[in-house]
C-alpha cells in the first residue's frame, strides 16, 4: 500500500512527513486541520528531497512479510492448540468431548488468537519506518 505525503522537515538523521487526507491537500502549503500529525520516514534510496516535497511512501517489504506471516500463523497455531487441548481440558473436569466440542474449542482459540494479535499490534510498535518510494 502506498500513500502520498508532504515532507515537513529534514534534519541530519530524521525526515518528518505528513500524509494527505484528501487529494486537494497536495497543493496546500499551509498546515490545516485535515493534515495528520508528522511521522518519521526513511529515504533508503537517498532520493533528492527537500522540505515541501511531495513523495509516495510505502511500508518496508520485510516488515510487510513479517506481519503477513504473524497474522497467518498465530491463528493457525492457536486453532491447532484448541483442537489438541480440548480433550485434556475437558478430562480435567471429568467430561468427555465430541468432535463438535473440539470444533467449539478451535473457534474459541481462534477468537483468543484474534484478541492476542489485536492487543499485541496495539501495544508493540511496528518495526521500521515507511520508506520513500517516489518523489513527485
From TrEMBL:
Q: Which UniProt keywords apply?
A: Membrane, Transmembrane, Transmembrane helix
- List all membrane-crossing ranges: 69-91, 103-121
Name recorded for this polypeptide: Positive regulator of sigma E, RseC/MucC
Source organism per entry reads Treponema succinifaciens (strain ATCC 33096 / DSM 2489 / 6091)
Amino acid at each position: 500500500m502506498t500513500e502520498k505525503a508532504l515532507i515537513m522537515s529534514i534534519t541530519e538523521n530524521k525526515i518528518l512527513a505528513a500524509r494527505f487526507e484528501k487529494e486537494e491537500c497536495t497543493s496546500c502549503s499551509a498546515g490545516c486541520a485535515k493534515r495528520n500529525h508528522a511521522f518519521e520516514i526513511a529515504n533508503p534510496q537517498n532520493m533528492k528531497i527537500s522540505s515541501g516535497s511531495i513523495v509516495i511512501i510505502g511500508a518496508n517489504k520485510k516488515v510487510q512479510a513479517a506481519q503477513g506471516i504473524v497474522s497467518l500463523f498465530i491463528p493457525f497455531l492457536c486453532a491447532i492448540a484448541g483442537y489438541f487441548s480440548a480433550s485434556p481440558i475437558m478430562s480435567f473436569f471429568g467430561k468427555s468431548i465430541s468432535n463438535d466440542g473440539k470444533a467449539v474449542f478451535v473457534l474459541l482459540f481462534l477468537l483468543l488468537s484474534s484478541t492476542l494479535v489485536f492487543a499485541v499490534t496495539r501495544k508493540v510498535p511496528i518495526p521500521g519506518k515507511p520508506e520513500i518510494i517516489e518523489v513527485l
